[in-house]
Specification:
Helix 7 packs antiparallel against helix 9. It contains 14 helices and 16 strands. The strands form four sheets. Strands 13-10-12-11-15-16-14 form a seven-stranded antiparallel sheet, with helices on both faces. Strands 3-4-8-6-7 form a five-stranded antiparallel sheet. Strands 1-2 form a two-stranded parallel sheet. The chain folds into three domains: 162 residues, Uridine Diphospho-n-acetylenolpyruvylglucosamine Reductase, domain 3; 110 residues, Alpha-Beta Plaits (2-Layer Sandwich); 86 residues, Alpha-Beta Plaits (2-Layer Sandwich), CATH 3.30.70. The chain is of the alpha+beta class and 406 residues long. It is 33% helix and 23% strand. A hairpin with a 4-residue loop joins strand 15 and strand 16. It starts with a helix and ends in a 12-residue tail after the last helix. This is D-2-hydroxyglutarate dehydrogenase, mitochondrial. Homodimer. Belongs to the FAD-binding oxidoreductase/transferase type 4 family. It is an enzyme of class 1 (oxidoreductase). It is found in: Peroxisome.
Length: 406
């Protein structure tokens, strides 16, 4: 990697880093004549410290393969994504990927203890620390986490892994509206606290979409809003008791209208399938514009209702699902066919409203090529100038992933 980038930099050849090709913002897609540099063959596990749970591996390791490797040691990765069968840990690092269990384990800025990256000129930056605490100088690893390959290409990571839970419980709940669902979530934080590992939300239109395109549907009937609450712990009897009491409390207070609680792996897999298989079926619903935003919880679902009203008959379907636990909403807008006019009509209004609500136009997918023009809308001129200055320092010839982010 060092020799490739050194050669490209000396000859002013643009480079597009590429991992598992699961990104949705064009961050790993060449725009013109860039040379694609794939990390696919950087796929070795280097070391696992079973006591500390720190895994050191190369950037091209597929996330699901790492999960399977750690399973033999009763450990697990801190992130779990729908694209885990294809995405690579280097790409996850470069986009600061989130996923369904960020609520429990945090993002990669907190879980990556160290990394190795190659700068545009071929210089290798070794930040391969495996310690939980190290306050020696600037924390350079954070420059590369989430910078989408624009400041350097990640080649190795040291990541903090976690003990695999002995008990996993799942609740699938139906609520009358989002306000009630939010009360159920607040109650979950109070009643289930230390064992919550995921809190997901889906609207009725999402379930309807899945029924139309996959013949799978809600196991509890039709409701306007659905919650998936997962708990992970070390004592099954204790966790079951807590989740059942929580469910009953939500029913008594009318926060939810119906629900099912299970510890069965097969039933849990069916429920998670409703949530995780949504994206892979987008192509069956016309052309789907998929947006990844964060909003304050009090405004979380309002944007879905607002976009339905704003688009009217211009859209075939507007639906929302996401990671309620961390405020990340995935809002989808399907139309009969793509046009630049409808894209601009959607995005200019959506991103303006997200900014007005003090949200983020990219919660976990990055900026890439597709959102670059909107970044100045949500970042101040001082912030943009500092990012551009950092880019010039790290990559003065501008060969790394050009036309992306800034």
């Amino acid at each position: 990697m060092s020799k490739i980038l050194s050669y490209c930099n000396n000859n002013l050849l643009a480079v597009c880093p590429q991992g598992g090709n699961t990104g949705v913002c064009g961050g790993a897609t060449p725009v013109f004549d860039e040379i694609i540099v794939s990390t696919e063959w950087l796929n070795s596990v280097i070391h696992l410290d079973e006591t500390s749970g720190v895994l050191v591996c190369e950037a091209g390791c597929v996330l699901e393969n790492l999960h399977n490797y750690l399973n033999d040691y009763d450990l697990m990765m801190p992130i779990d994504l729908g694209a885990k069968g294809s995405c690579q840990i280097g790409g996850n690092t470069s986009t600061n990927a989130g996923g369904i269990r960020l609520y429990r384990y945090g993002n990669l800025h907190g879980n990556i203890l160290g990394l190795e990256a190659v700068k545009a000129d071929g210089e290798i930056i070794d930040c391969m620390n495996t310690l939980k605490k190290d306050n020696t100088g600037f924390h350079l690893k954070h420059i590369f986490i989430g910078s989408e390959g624009c400041l350097g290409i990640v080649t190795k990571v040291a990541i903090q892994c976690h003990p695999k839970p002995k008990s996993i419980q799942l609740a699938f709940l139906g609520a009358q509206n989002f306000t009630k669902a939010l009360k159920a979530f607040k109650t979950a934080k109070q009643e289930l606290g230390e064992i919550i590992s995921a809190v997901e939300v889906m609207d009725h239109e999402t379930i309807k979409f899945m029924w139309e395109h996959t013949d799978t549907t809600s196991p509890i009937g039709d409701y306007p809003i659905y919650l998936i609450i997962e708990t992970s712990g070390s004592n099954e009897e204790h966790d079951q008791d807590k989740l059942n009491k929580y469910f009953q409390k939500c029913m008594d207070k009318h926060f939810v209208l119906n629900g099912v609680v299970t510890s069965s792996p097969s039933k849990s897999e069916q429920i998670w399938g409703l949530r995780e298989r949504v994206a892979e079926n987008f192509y069956k619903d016309g052309y789907v514009f998929a947006y990844d935003i964060s909003l304050p919880l009090e405004n979380y679902y309002d944007i879905v209702t607002e976009m339905k009203e704003y688009l009217g008959e211009k859209s075939h379907r507007v639906f929302g699902f996401g990671h309620l636990g961390d405020g990340n909403l995935h809002i989808q807008i399907s139309v009969q066919k793509f046009s630049t006019d409808i894209m601009n009509y959607i995005e200019q209004h959506l991103y303006k409203r997200v900014n007005e609500l003090n949200g983020s136009i990219s919660a976990e997918h990055g900026i890439g090529f597709l959102k670059k023009q909107y970044l100045p809308l949500v970042k101040s001129e001082a912030n943009m100038n500092l990012m551009r200055s950092l880019k010039r320092v790290m990559d003065p010839n501008g060969i790394l992933n050009p036309y992306k982010v800034v």
